[in-house]
Amino acid sequence: MVERVRAFGILVIFDEIMTGFGRTGTHFAHSQTGVTPDFLCLSKGITGGFLPLAMTITHHEIYSAFLSDEWKAAFAHGHSYTANPLACAAARTSLKLLMRKECQQAITTIHKAHQQGLSFLKSRCKQIEKFRMIGTISAFDIKNGSSVSDQIKAKCLQAGLLIRPLGATIYLLPPYSTTSEDLSAAYQKIATIIEAVV
Q: How far apart are CA 178 and CA 109, in angstroms?
């Protein structure tokens, strides 16, 4: 698909706002596709979610096309939070923490806990389907469940779980500080809530 798009001279943009910085099991999701985009959009995980910061990365050919001392030739674009000094300091520290062995192990631990949690849900809740997982992200769908997603969200919040359903899809995106015990308890609560609501 990317080759077809590029054959028409169309630039390829990958949005890794949610998927960057280890969320999919690799530093960036695009590394799993074998495709290097023309633009890479990053945010959220860049500071570990601590402060708002965003960046858009591109290659030299595109950068050079807008390199000029004249404002009219500039690519006049900026994120609301670009280059905030405090956020940049948080990003540097977050990146150092991400690269530590303990954080990489935490990502692996969360992945394994998701495998066990989804397996538990499959065996217990017949009201859900389309189980999937990549890295530290897991998701499943409530059968005909978009009408109850707000109820599930409210019940989860009462149980101490912050989730944001997308229609009938429930996804879990835990912080890297989450233990396997925490995640197991979350899956137990979600199963109880689904059985009560659906």
A: 9
Crossing angle of helices 149-158 and 180-197, in 10° steps, is 130
Query: How far apart, in whole angstroms, are the C-alpha atoms of residue 193 and residue 170?
Result: 12
Written as six digits, the tokens of 65 are 């096309």
Give the pTM: 0.87
Per DSSP, 38 falls in state S
**Strand-pair partners of 134:** 137
Tokens matching residue 192: 């109880």
Model confidence band, residue 161 (pLDDT cutoffs 50, 70, 90): very high
Cross-strand bridge partners of residue 146: none
What confidence tens digit (pLDDT) does each residue in 53-71 have? 888 899 999 999 988 888 8
Q: What is the pLDDT of residue 164?
A: 84
Distance of alpha carbon 45 from alpha carbon 173, whole angstroms: 12
Concatenating the DSSP letter of every residue in 152-182 gives HHHHHHHTT-----BTTEEEE---TT--HHH
With contact defined as beta carbons under 8 Å apart, do 97 and 168 qualify? no
